[in-house]
Design goal:
The protein has 74 residues and is an all-alpha fold. It has three helices and no strands.
Length: 74
């Protein structure tokens, strides 16, 4: 375990290190079929930080991401 941890290169401040860890967790969750875990992690932590294109965003207001998943009406 200590050999593995010494081989992992986290850089920067503590906040940067946490961002690196959460970003890797997001990628791992996004690429696996684990439902909405990656989305939950992003909503909970704010990492990874996404660039929002306000000209194509259909949310109201168009300056922020949706705070919840949209449930389609039947």
């Amino acid at each position: 375990m200590s050999t593995y941890l010494s081989g992992v290169a986290l850089t920067g401040t503590t906040a940067n290190k946490i961002e690196q860890i959460i970003t890797q967790k997001y990628i791992a969750g996004f690429l696996q079929d684990v439902d909405f875990n990656a989305w939950y992690e992003n909503r909970r932590t704010g990492y990874p930080e996404f660039v929002l294109n306000t000209s194509t965003n259909l949310n109201v207001p168009s300056t922020s991401f949706s705070p919840a998943l949209a449930i389609p009406a039947e």
